[in-house]
Amino acid sequence: MVEHERTGPVDWITWSFSRVAMWAPAGIVAIIFYEVFMRYILFKPTLWVNEMSLWIGGMIYVTSGLYAMQQRSHIRIYIVYDLAPLWLRRTFDVLSVVCVCIFVIAVIWGGFGEAAAKFFRWEKFGTAFDPPIPATDKPLVLITLFVLALQAISNLIRDWPSHPIVRKAFDIGVTLLIIYCASLAIGPLMAGPDDGSSVPFLWRVGLGITLAIAVLLSVVGLIVDFNRTPTPMEESHDPAEEFDLPDEVLTGRPPAVDAASGKLDDEKK
Known about the structure:
Order of helices and strands: HHHHHHHHH
Strand content: under 5%
Distance between the termini: 39 Å
Helix content: 55-70%
Number of helices: 9
Largest sheet: none
Number of strands: 0
Shape: globular
């Protein structure tokens, strides 16, 4: 797999955190193996493996869309898109980004209050292990959607390269927005039981560190890629054109090979 290049502050955040998420399925497999060993070998089943696997799996499911968006690998219907001229493709992309932003704004607007309430009262799952799945996954959905909208706009600006002033203004603006949102979140996040928050201390510290890392990544992405010119979509090409391959191979019907001689039937003729 050849990954799409990372350009800009949003790409740096998405790409870096996705590297951590890529190891999460291995963690799920490891704890399930542990559960199988404890249950069927030692006859001492655990109370936490099932809920932990659900918890981690939910986080993977929610955040994987960010990486797919950054890599331009999300599902799209190209029947009309590929037949359209470049100006119409650009129009389609702009409309899709507008629809994404409208959807994200609507979900965040409608779900922010509930997500904040679940987080600050540290709502748990209600099982024997009782992990704080509602308290963490509900806010994670909104945060992921927020970054997803920024990623979609960043992709649009770079796939159809805007004027450098527009691209640089967006990068500066999105970096300042991330810093501003992080500064707003620090105060409530650090609130303890005396302020009506039930979030455990270690969780508050860990989330604060995560916010600091996100801010640092956005600043690094801004500095590194500030003067970098993205590759226009018009210059994209089919990798198969770089190789001189017969039409039969490209269409999935390779030429017949004689079993005795090991030569192609065309070469024998």
